[in-house]
Amino acid sequence: MNRLLTRSLLIRTSSAVISAAKGGEKSVGKFIVGFQPDVFQFQRQGTAALSVTEWRRYMSSTPEYKKSTPATDVSERESKEKSTAVDEKTKKEGNRAVVPSYWAVSRPEITADDGTKWRWNCFMPWDTYEADLSIDLSKHHKPTTLLDKIAYRTVKLLRIPTDIFFRRRYGCRAMMLETVAAVPGMVGGMLLHLKSLRRFEQSGGWIKALLEEAENERMHLMTMVELVKPKWYERLLVITVQGVFFNVYFVLYLMSPKLAHRVVGYLEEEAIHSYTEYLKDIESGAIENVRAPAIAIDYWRLPKDATLKDVITVIRADEAHHRDVNHFASDVHFQGKKLKEAPAPIGYH
C-alpha cells in the first residue's frame, strides 16, 4: 500500500513539474526551490502519507517566498521612521556633522549678549573685544645695534616686491600680509611651549600671549577674505610665501629670538603704514566704503552699521599692539634676560 502511494505521489509531482515548466522558468524555479524530496519520506511502519495541509504549510514556509508577518512589518516601519527622523534632524542641523552622543564632547548652546544663538564656530563671545584706538601709531624703534639694522633692512627689502606686485590694491596686499603675520606668534608660542616641557619651567605667560597674537592675526585674515576674494594665482602665492616664511622664521627663532622678535616688530610697523594708506584710499573714494562683514562686527564688537573704514581702523590698532609686544620681547632678550622674567602682555591685542 505504501509503495502504491509513493508511486502515485511521484507521478503527481512529475506532472506538476511539467505544468510548471509550461508556465515559464520563473514558475519552475519557484517550484524547485520549494520542493525538497527529503520531506516526502514515508515511514514503513504504517504511517500515512503527507497530508494536504502539511504540504501547503511547507510550501508557504519557504524562506525566499515567505510572506511578511506583522512583527516584520512593525520592525520595518520603525526603521523607516528612525531613518526619516535622522534625515529631518540632519536637515535641521544643516551641514554640521552629527556624531554619537556617547563621546560626550558636544558643545553646549552658546548665546550672544542679546540672547540670540551664537553663530560663529571660529571664535567664542569671550574672545571678542573692543579695540583700543588710543594707541600711538607713530612709534618707531630706531635701529641701533647690528641685529636691529639687519632686521630693519630685511623688512625694507621684503617690501619692495610687495609694492611691485600689489601696487595700490590694498585689499589683496592686506590679505597677503595677514597670512604672513599670523605665522610668528604660532612659531614663537610653539617653541616656547616645547622649551617649557623640556626644562620643566614656566613661560611667564608668553606662550599664551604669542598664541593670542597668532589667533588675532588669523581673524584679520578671516575678515579680509570676506572682503577680498583671492584669485587662484594669489592663493598660489600665499602657499609659496607661507611655506618659505615659516621655515625661515622657525630657524631664525631657534638661532636668535631677539632678532626674530625685532623682525616682527618692524613688519608690524610696515603693516601700520599699509593700513594707513588703505584708509586714505577709502576716505578719498578710490576704494568703496562697503558694509563691514558680520564676522568683523561680532569679533570687534562694532556697531551694526559699521563699514570697511571701521574694520581697517581696528585692524590697524591691533597691528600697533603687536608691534609693541614684539619690540618689548626683543628688548628683554637684548638685556640678557629670558622672557619668563618679564610679565607677558596677555590680552594686549
TrEMBL record:
InterPro entries: AOX, AOX_sf. Its EC number is 1.10.3.11. Binds 2 iron ions per subunit. Fe cation 2 binds at residues 217, 268, 319, 322. Its main location: mitochondrion. Residues 74-92 have a biased composition (Basic and acidic residues). One of its GO terms (biological process) is alternative respiration. It is a multi-pass membrane protein. It catalyses: 2 a ubiquinol + O2 = 2 a ubiquinone + 2 H2O. Residues 64-92 are annotated as: Disordered. Keywords: Electron transport, Iron, Membrane, Metal-binding, Mitochondrion, Mitochondrion inner membrane, Oxidoreductase, Respiratory chain, Transit peptide, Transmembrane, Transmembrane helix, Transport. Its cofactor is Fe cation. The keyword Transmembrane helix applies. It is found in: Mitochondrion inner membrane. It holds the Pfam family AOX. The chain crosses the membrane at residues 236-255. Belongs to the alternative oxidase family. Homodimer; disulfide-linked. This is Ubiquinol oxidase. It comes from Saponaria officinalis (Common soapwort).
